[in-house]
Amino acid sequence: MASVRSQFPAAPASTDGEAQPGFGTASSESTLSEALLVLRKRKWVLVATVVLGLLYGLYEAMTQPVRYTAYGKLEVGTGATAAYREPGFAGGENLNNEMLILASDTLMLTVGREMDLANNPAFFGITKGTLPHRNIDDPAVRQAVVGTLLGTVKAANIPGTQILIISCVSANPKLSADIVNHVMDAYITRSYQSKYASTDRVSKWLSGQLSDLKAQVEASQEQLIDMQRKLGVLGLSFDPSHVPTTESTQKVDALSGALSGARVARILAESKFRTLQSANPDNLEGLLDVSGLDGELNRLRGDIATTKATIAEELVTRGVRNPKVEADQRHLAELQREVTTEQNRLLSQSKDAFIAAQANENQTAEALNQAKNEAYQLRDATVEYNLRQREYETNRSLYDGLLARLRTAGVQAGLEALEIDIVDRAQQPPAPTLKPTSSILLQNGIFGLIGGVVLSFLLETLDTGLRNVAEIESVMQLPSLAVIPRVRRISGDSGTTLSVAQSNVGVLATSKSQFSEAFRSLRTSLLLSTAGHPPKIIVVSSSTPAEGKTTVATNLACILAQRETRVLLIDSDLRRPNVHHRFGLNGRVGLSTVLAGAAKFEDALRQVPEVPNLDILCCGPVPPFPTEMLSSEAMHDLLVRCSEEYTHIVIDSPPILSVTDGVILARQCDALALVVRQGKSSRHVVRRARDLLVRAGAPVTGVILNAVDVNSPEYYGYYGYSGYSYSNIDSESWEPESQKPSHTQTPTGAA
């Protein structure tokens, strides 16, 4: 079957999710103009909601209850206690707290108990009859009384002042004034009592704290006096930084100096001892001056030298045996023994001096350490005294501050109640307070308008029908070929006799109308849809039934035949044929009989006098297997033959989603136009039909939007040329019906 399309190049099929070149999709961005279009389209929703709002407002204004409002004024000032308040206190900042107190449950319960409102019928809006006696202590009764009071009594502040306005609304004017006055009196009493009780509690607490602080001050003072006795000072103003020098400090100073002298003496004595101990005895005379020794050893050594010289002289003159020489030698030996003895004595003396100096140093250091310990104890006592003195001063300051606060609280307790004054007591209102009818109507009208706007956009969001070209191009990703307006069916009241074809085919009866001009525009779009030459085989189909594909196919065939070209209209809807009804033809012979071989093609063709160049091949008898017949070789050969004999072939196809017949025919055509009825076809349905056609390789040329209301906001000005060349009578004189007709001569305008 592909040979039919191979002879005539088909228009390129659109791919899924991509727009074909040559047309633009509408922007998805919401603009103010689009919102206005939605409101214009849903104008009756707006009108209905506004009217309902006004009616309800009128009902509310006529049935609003009669209420009396009484007012009273209170001044909440700083009073005589301003001098006793904390720094930074501002009376105006406290007004919000006071208004909350006025609206408290406790205050309302006090008023209800004083006025016995639980047994007052007027308070609950009962004008006739009495109430059974009820106790306000009952939880349900208490809740009812307090809740009613909170709903009727209001407190407000006059900006820039310290004046509060108390108001009450009720059905009884006297009751309104009485409630306001009782609320003000109860508020003043409560303010005095609560503030006095609060101050009294503070005073009692301060008194208890003062007793403990007084005991602490006395204990601190006694400990401070004991420390002064220990330190030997007098007076409570003792400064620890000026402690007088005592015996302990003098002893430390003296022993420090003595220890330094003893350490120097020990070092000198040890140096002398170490020097003498390590020196050569023969060289000891060289160390005598250095070591500070006396001259005894030097004298002995001088005598030894003199004796040695004398012995030497006598040995020369007298000889060795001379008594004098022997006596001198004995004297020399004695001198040497004395030198040795003197050396030993000097060494022993130096050692004793070193030992004595070392012992003196140790004793002096021990005495200094003892004196230091006594000085440290004195320092610790001074620090403890400092701590005791600070503790005493802290306790004394706290005690003095609390004592002053206690005296202030005693004065403040008697003056707090003077801050609240009654400026105006509530008077019985002379007339009820009613809300103006105009205000109620305006308010409800605005609410109705807002509700209508919200409802309009909600309905627009829930509406899945396709209503304008922009939506179709955005959803289908296909160009729009034409927009067919919805018109009324022709009527015979004017005395003009019309044939069946003219009554059912709009372009035959109203050649100068919006309807006819729309099909001329469709003809132009189709002829220019394929490259090289106009399409021969044109299939007209739809997603679902009753979208007007038969109306489009019949009128399109008539428009194409008006160009002095041979056009063939084939009714391929072998399940619900309708073309022969539109032209008033006999449908016993047609496509099914030709494909079955029961009739020749030339014998099955029909003509209408109104369109000489148009041949019609009706459906014929409904076959048992339409799909097999349309997909047969006979159907393919028939289309090949018709393509050679006719300039254009218009095929009325079954719906795409209902049966597969439309998809089979779509593969054999040169151009396929998908009809979408305004407001009926939903987005997912037409998108599903497009996907089926694209996957089948059908040359989907574009979309035809059918049965469009030209007066809708989406198409305002779309047919603006109608007033230029076409009359309203012609443009509104014919409208195809959407229901399939019975097999009678009553034609309809849509398949």
UniProtKB/TrEMBL annotation:
Pfam hit, one? AAA_31
* Span of domain AAA: 536-666
| Record carries keyword Transmembrane helix | yes
Q: Which residues form a coiled coil?
A: 325-352
Q: Name the CDD domains on file.
A: BY-kinase (cd05387)
- Its domain of life? Bacteria
**Transmembrane stretches, by residue range?**
44-62
InterPro entries according to UniProt: AAA_dom, Bact_polysacc_biosynth/exp, P-loop_NTPase, Wzc-like_C
The segments labelled Disordered in the record are 1-26, 732-751
- Annotated Polar residues bias: 739-751
- Give the UniProt keywords, A-Z: ATP-binding, Coiled coil, Kinase, Membrane, Nucleotide-binding, Transferase, Transmembrane, Transmembrane helix, Tyrosine-protein kinase
Enumerate the PANTHER family for this protein.
Answer: CAPSULAR EXOPOLYSACCHARIDE FAMILY, TYROSINE-PROTEIN KINASE
State the NCBIfam families in the record. Answer: eps_fam (TIGR01007)
**Name of this protein:** GumC family protein
Source species: Terriglobus aquaticus
